[in-house]
Amino acid sequence: MVKKAIFPLVILFSVTGIIVSYLYYQQQISSIAEDATTASTSDRSELTTEEEVINEPDLEDVYSSGWLGDYFDSEPPADQHLVFVGSHAFESTESDLTWPSIVMDETLEAIAPIEMSYDVLTFSEETVTSSLIDDVSSAIIAAEPTILIVESFSLNDNQYYLPFTEEESVQNLATFLTHMEDELPDIEMIVVPSNPFPNALHYLDRKQILDEQAGSLPGEYVDHWQEWPTGSELETVIQNLRPNDEGQQIWADAFLEFFIDS
Question: I want to staple 66 with a disulfide (CB 3.0 to 4.6 A). Which of 11, 130, 193, 260 is the partner?
């Protein structure tokens, strides 16, 4: 009888021991898995922090380079659209090369991974400052630029409408720029003079007046003439009053020094 009573108890204790051992084992596995998950999350967090520390100086370099870097300090780099506006002086006499395309190729490489879109709007050789609002402004407004880079059109004024005085050319340009500010209140504008050319006479007077009155123009004035060769050397980079490929590169390099400090 005693043996019969003990036998069920032994079985009961054995089953209980197995259950308790199983529950303990499951608890240990759960604890190990939780520790592993926590460690993995911590490692990823530390890795992300290290990556941010490594990448941060690169972003600082982008934001602090030249005029564009100063602009990025106050405006987010996303959704920026540049529009270059000028005469056929923008187009090389030798190829399809333009100084704005050179500028944007180097700029986009410098600020990567930030992206910026752009358009180049060139107008007929007969376009002069007095007709900029009628001939040019609607196309600019349709392009919706955040940054507008404008050639002064002094070359066309000199070539086609010599009765315009130098002062009238600058006043026409100022009126156009003010009109663009009114139409696009958040726009930033940069003005560049037209290119030099050999044996110029009245054109030099026009350029001098533009330099003297540039401070009164809306936007920033960027003079690139000091980077061009003079005398007979200027004849090697200008053809039919417009820059060839080498001249387009000179113009682009001068502007890039200002734009991204390149």
Answer: 260
The secondary structure of residue 91, as a DSSP letter, is B
Q: What is the mean pLDDT of each run of 10 residues along the chain (262 residues)?
A: 49 52 54 51 42 42 75 85 94 93 95 92 87 92 96 85 78 95 96 94 90 94 97 95 96 97 83
Its sign, for the CA torsion 161, 164, 165, 167, is negative
Residues 6+ apart with CB under 8 A from 196: 207, 225, 228, 234, 238
- 147-186 burial, b at 16+ Cβ within 10 Å, e below that, comes to bbbbbbbbbbbbbeeeebebebbbbbbbebbebbeeebee
Distance, CA of 16 to chain centre: 73
pTM of the model: 0.75
Q: Contact 137/189 with Cβ under 8 angstroms? A: no
CB-side exposure of 55: number of CA atoms within 13 Å? 8
Residue type at 146 in one-letter notation: T
For residues 262 and 260, what is the distance between their CA atoms, to the nearest angstrom?
5
Q: What pLDDT, on the 0 to 100 scale, is given for residue 139?
A: 95
Burial class (CB in 10 A: 0-12, 13-18, 19+), 104: buried
Distances (CA, A) of 31 to 18, 28, 45, 145, 193: 20, 5, 21, 59, 73
| Predicted local confidence at residue 21, as pLDDT | 55
Query: Which pLDDT score, from 0 to 100, does residue 109 have?
Result: 93
- So what's the pLDDT on residue 6? 53
For 103, which DSSP code?
H
- Between CA 13 and CA 15 the distance in angstroms is 6
